[in-house]
Amino acid sequence: MNKTLVVDIDDTLTFKHGKDYTIDSLPNPFMIKRINKLHQLGWKIVLFTARKMESSGHDAGKALARGGYNTFKWLEKHKVEFDAIHFGKPNGIIIDDKAIGYDMGKVLLYLDKLIEKGNV
């Protein structure tokens, strides 16, 4: 079994503070506790975030430059254990067979609904 867990940051490990995610954003202690425990048990924890992607024109380098410092400070402040962090997660609907609760049938139905709606 691949012991790598890829975890989003915003609305997973942290919650918005006002209109954005900042150094003062609230942590999700229930999630952080479990992520840290898995890390201590030998799991590789990879953080993957779309933070600042939209406002950076979907340029991962710019997103890192604009949001990296506060992101790392927030993770340090809340003692989140991880092995790697990747800025540049596309900001949109993600379909992945490794997702928890992944169900091909539900995904196909969802896509059919998007097709029916057209360009709405």
Rg, Cα atoms, Å: 16 Å
Please tell me the total number of domains: 1
Q: Look at the structure and give the mean pLDDT.
A: 88
Spatial gap, N to C terminus = 41 Å
Summed up, the helix count is 3
The CATH topology is Rossmann fold
* Secondary-structure element order, N to C: EEEHEHEH
Architecture, according to CATH?
3-Layer(aba) Sandwich
Show unreliable segments: none
Q: What can be said about the biggest beta sheet?
A: 3 strands, parallel
Q: Which overall shape is indicated by the principal axes computed on the Cα atoms?
A: globular
User: How many beta-strand elements?
Assistant: 5
- CATH class annotation: Alpha Beta
Strand content: 15-25%
Q: Which structural category fits the helices and strands?
A: alpha/beta
State the fourth-level CATH superfamily. Answer: HAD superfamily/HAD-like
Helix content: 25-40%
Strand order of the largest sheet: 1-4-5
Oligomer: single chain
Could you please describe the fold and organization of this structure?
The chain contains three helices and five strands, in the order βββαβαβα. By secondary structure, it is α/β, with parallel strands linked by helices. The chain has a single domain, classed as Rossmann fold, CATH 3.40.50.1000. A three-stranded parallel beta sheet has the order 1-4-5. It starts with a strand and ends with a helix.
